[in-house]
Amino acid sequence: MLHVFQTFFSSSMASPKKRLQGLVAATITPMTEHGEINFSVIGQYVDYLVEEQGVKNIFVNGTTGEGLSLSISERRQVAEEWVTKGRNKLDQVVIHVGALSLKESQELAKHAAEIGADGIAVIAPFFLKPWNKDVLIDFLKEVAAAAPAQPFYYYHIPALTGVEIRAEELLDGIQEKIPSFQGLKFSDTNLLDFGQCVDQNRQRQLAFLFGVDEQLLSALVMGATGAVGRPTQINHPTQTSVGKELSLPRSPFLLTGVLYSEIYQLCGQTRFWSVPDQSHHDSGIWDSNGPTPASTAESLQGVY
Fold first, then answer.
1. What is the distance of C-alpha 233 from the center of its chain?
2. Residue 77, H or E segment
3. Annotated catalytic sites, by residue?
4. Which strand (E) or helix (H) includes residue 120?
5. What are residue 186's phi and psi, to 5 degrees?
6. Cα separation values, 64 from 30, 96, 129, 192, Å
7. Using only C-alpha atoms, what is the Rg of the chain?
8. Is the whole-model pTM more than 0.90?
9. pLDDT-derived band of residue 213, with 50, 70 and 90 as boundaries?
10. Would you state the pLDDT for residue 267?
11. Which of 1, 175, 179, 299 is 20 to 30 A (C-alpha) from 273?
12. Which phi and psi (to 5°) does residue 184 adopt?
C-alpha cells in the first residue's frame, strides 16, 4: 500500500525542484550494546531505504531517532554520517535541530548547513514553553537565522512538547518573519487544525508533511503533500521475509510492529526504544504496536 502512496505523491504533486514531499523516513539512531552510536550501520541503512524500499527522503534526529536523548556532539556526528552516506543516494536529508537551549539549536542549525543537509526542522521548546504564537515564532526565527539558506520546517508535536499553539495560527504570516520557512511536519491528531493549515495556505507552495500514521489516509484527502514516519520504511511487504507471509492489501500501519522489527535488527540497538531481550535499556515493551517506552506507550503510539 505504501507503493500506492508513493505513486499518489509523485503523480499528483507538480512541484518545484527540491520541494520536500512524498514519503520521508523517520530514521532510528542505531546503538551498540554499550549505548554508543553504531555509525557502521548507517551506510547499510541508507542502502536498505533506497534499494529495498524506494524511500529517498529522511528525517534525522527526530522523535524516532531519539535526537533529544543524544548529546549535542552525538547529534552532530549522526547528522554528518547520514549526509555523508546519503550523498548521491538520497534526495533530501532533513535534520531536526530543536533543543531546549536556543544557542544549542542555533549551533545545530549552523552545523546542518555546513555539512550540506537539505533542510532543518525545529520543535517548540518544551520546558519553559512559549505562551503564545509570537513568542514561539521569535524562537523559531532565531534558529532559522543561524542558517538562513536552509529550508526551514516547524515540527508540530504537541503530545510531546505540551505546546498547544495551533499550527494554523502559527502559519499565519510566518514567512514574513522567517523567509526560509518551507512547511510543517504535523504530528498531531487534530485533523481540523491540519485541514485549516492546508486550506488557508494553498497558494504558498508549502510542504504539509503528516506524521500520525493511523490518520494518514484522512490527511491525504485534506491535502497532505507527504508523510513522515516509521512505516515509510516498509514499502513493499512482499519483499521482506516476514511480509511474504502477510497479505498485501492489509494496511501497512497494521504491519508496522511486525515489519519494523527488521529495521531494528539492522540497527542492532537503540538507546531509548526497547527491543526484545535488551534488559540493559530503559524499561520498555515490545507489543503488536512495535517498540515503545513503557512509560509513554499510549502517548507515543503512531506519533513520530
1. 12
2. helix 72-86
3. 155, 185
4. strand 119-123
5. -100, 105
6. 11, 11, 22, 25
7. 18
8. no
9. confident
10. 62
11. 1
12. -135, 135
